[in-house]
């Protein structure tokens, strides 16, 4: 990837995730904020003659189940 493209992505808040080999936007920007940033980056890169491929990122969080209640140990009567 050209240095110019990387700098444009970083300037618009994208973060590189090596395990996905992709630049991603944090959820903190919200859906509207991410859409605006994607449009701005796509426009800027197109002006530089750089094509853009977009894909929906796989979720990065896993569902965590609440802790189960401890079960009482069986009582032994003598």
Helices, strands, pairings?
Layout: H1 3-11, E1 15-17, E2 22-24, H2 30-47
Antiparallel strand pairs: 1-2
Count the helices. How many?
2
Q: How do the strands of the widest beta sheet line up side by side? A: 1-2
Question: What structural class should be given to the helix and strand makeup?
Answer: mainly alpha
The H/E string reads HEEH
Largest beta-sheet characterization:
2 strands, antiparallel
Q: Can you count the beta strands?
A: 2
Low-pLDDT segments, ≥5 res: none
Strand content: 5-15%
Key structural traits:
78 residues, mainly alpha, 2 helices, 2 strands, globular
How would you characterize this protein structure?
The protein is mostly helical and 78 residues long. It is 35% helix and 8% strand. A two-stranded antiparallel ribbon has the order 1-2. Strand 1 and strand 2 form a beta hairpin.
In short:
It contains 2 helices and 2 strands; from the N terminus they run αββα. The chain has helices spanning 3-11, 30-47; strands at residues 15-17, 22-24.
